Each structure stands twice: as C-alpha cells, then as structure tokens.
Amino acid sequence: MKMDYKKDFKSLYLPKSTPELIQVPLMRFAVIEGSGDPNGPEFAEATEALYSLSYAIKMSYKGDDVPVGYHEYTVFPLEGEWDLVDYTKGNKDKSNFKYQLMIRQPDFVTEEVFQLFLEKVKKKKPNAHLDRIQLISIEEGLCCQMLHLGSYDDEPESFAKMVAFVESNQKKRASLCHREIYLSDPRKTETSKLKTVLRFKVV
Fold first, then answer.
1. pLDDT for 40-55, tens place per residue?
2. What pLDDT, on the 0 to 100 scale, is given for residue 1?
3. How is the chain split among helix, strand and coil, in percent rounded to 5?
C-alpha cells in the first residue's frame, strides 16, 4: 500500500486554518542550510538539488539498489526553517534571511542509503548544491501551527493569530525562528490560493 503524507500524516501536513497546538515527533530530513533572498537563483538551485535526490530515492525500486525496507510513497513537500542572520536588521530585508531548506525522507533512508543515492544523482544530474545536503533527524516537540492561505507576504497576519492563540493557552513562542511547509507550487498556483503550513515551537 502506498504511503501518502496527506492521509498518513494529515495532522502534520493538512492542519486547520485556525491555530492549534501539536506535538511534532522525530523525523528524518535531507537538509541544505543557506542564507539570502529566497527569490534568488541560489535558493532555486538548492531546491532543485533536494528534489533531485528525493525523487531518485523514491524511484529506486526500478533500479538495482533497492533500499532495505523500501515501500511506495509520495515524496514529501518542501519545507523551510526560517531565521534571521542579524536580528538588529529585522525581516524586511530578505537578504537577511537564514534558512534550512529540507524534504522529509522515509524511515528506510539510512545514512548509507542517503550517501548511495546522493552519489548517483551527482553523476546523473550535477548540481553544486548536492554537496551541501545532509541527512538530519529533527524533533520539533510542542508547536503551534495553522494553514495559511494566500501570499507569503501576508503570513504576518497568520503569525499574529498564532501568537495570540498560544498566549491564550498560557504558553509563549520559543523564538522568532519558524517553519513553513509548502503545499502548493508557486509557479503553477494563483497567489491567493497558495497553501502553506506555518509552525513555530512553543514553551
């Protein structure tokens, strides 16, 4: 049976359009760290590198190196963990953004599997950013999240609702760092219909 994150992990990837608290478990990701304007070429190339690796692993059942424990699945969506390089400059200057760009990997993707397919992709689809990818396990723990509909530039309105919700539950936002999960392709989706999961840690 094919694993589909929209069905099997619905609470993590298809949340409500109102804030909620959720316990986010330990998960494995292919990650690239970077900084700068996400509208620039470096960000696009890093994204392409992550997808190239992720789809190579997904399609591995057609080759000679099928990973132990492999099962059919839908490739997880692109995610970004966002922070600022210099807090004194604020978030208006997009060149001040710092990020961890990532795609979740199935549990059968061990470090050995990761390295094997990383080398295969380097030969088949060369991309300088492939050398920057790492396999990392991340446990976010207690978080607040909600589904944001519309432009990325309007996200502050959703974050304001999330902060108010957290405070009404006698909690507080852990830091200015936050996660975005991109459920829509901005190249093919009207801005007003973009779906993005917003999430930040809570204490």
1. 999 999 999 999 999 9
2. 81
3. 35, 30, 35
